[in-house]
Specification:
47% helix, disordered N terminus, 2 domains, 262 residues, binds heme C, disordered C terminus, mainly alpha
Length: 262
């Protein structure tokens, strides 16, 4: 193989301009090549940046943790990059692409990368358990109606009666559901209230200040039963005021003994 060294080796040269078609390998470090690619294909680069920004914004809007979104985006990028690399390897003679051609190749690479990534993440075991162990005992709800409203608005996350719709088996939705349920149960699990009230004493507060149920939960008309009307919210809060343990001052104290009168 011929030596690449010349007296002008400090001059940054686009690797793809290597004149030897017999040598499909690209020289130069990947960062510099990425910058070169970005500056020679501004339209593609802009679209990619907008796509990433939209994916992140959408992810926040629907409550999909960035902890999941960012690795997924990175995976799509890596697969797309790999496909592009393989494609270039087979056409070493072509020095550079027009913007339109680069756009088509880039779009195809990202689309295939997304499909492959989507398939691959289905193999992850996380998010499949859909567990609903039996609980140790619920609060003494003031009425059946209070329980019904709590079940509609809160039990999808804070109980051992989580209803998992079919789409909750598809990654990354399954990951998101698992994470929300795990986090929510850790804070307060109303099914285990008898042995572990957790943060139940903040129940009235988080409903009153609109913190719960989380706004992402009822986006796109999903879980409409959890979206309480003003009247339902008032009804629920009245019921919770008459339920021990739902506010800091109200009902029995967490450590004050939960006797029922004797
Ligand atoms: C989509 C799942 C989901 C639903 C539905 C939901 N929560 Fe939560 N809840 C969470 C998560 C996740 C946390 C922990 C993170 C946080 O505090 O935002 C939490 C935290 C809480 C906390 C602890 C907050 C604190 O700072 O002490 C309380 C209390 C609570 N939720 C009550 C409720 C009540 C009451 C409802 C129904 C009106 C409800 N939640 C509906 C997911 C949910």
């Amino acid at each position: 193989m011929a030596s690449h060294r010349t007296e002008a080796e400090d001059q940054p040269m686009p690797a793809s301009s290597a004149h030897s078609p017999a040598a499909p390998r690209h020289d130069g470090d990947p960062v510099r090549r990425a910058v070169t690619t970005a500056t020679t294909h501004p339209v593609v680069t802009t679209l990619v940046v907008i796509g990433i920004a939209l994916a992140i914004a959408f992810s926040i809007y629907v409550g999909l943790d960035l902890f999941f979104t960012i690795p997924i985006l990175v995976m799509i990028g890596v697969v797309a990059w790999g496909l592009h690399w393989l494609w270039r390897r087979r056409r070493p003679a072509e020095p550079s692409l027009s913007n339109a051609a680069a756009g088509r190749v880039g779009f195809a690479a990202v689309a295939i990368g997304a499909v492959l990534t989507f398939g691959a993440i289905q193999l992850a075991p996380y998010g499949r358990s859909h567990s609903n162990p039996s609980g140790t005992g619920e609060p003494q709800w003031a009425s059946a109606r209070t329980r019904e409203l709590m079940k509609d608005a809160c039990y999808s996350c804070h109980s051992n009666e989580v209803h998992y719709p079919p789409y909750a088996s598809i990654a990354p939705i399954s990951w998101m559901v698992q994470r929300h349920v795990d986090e929510a149960r850790e804070k307060v699990n109303y099914s285990n209230f008898a042995t572990d009230p957790g943060e139940a004493e903040n129940t009235i507060e988080v409903i009153e200040n609109g913190e719960m149920p989380p706004s992402y939960f009822t986006r796109f008309g999903l879980h409409s039963e959890a979206k309480l009307t003003d009247a339902q919210r008032k009804e629920l809060i009245d019921g919770l005021r008459a339920t021990p343990g739902m506010s800091e001052g109200g009902g029995q104290r967490r450590d004050g003994g939960r006797g029922d009168g004797d």
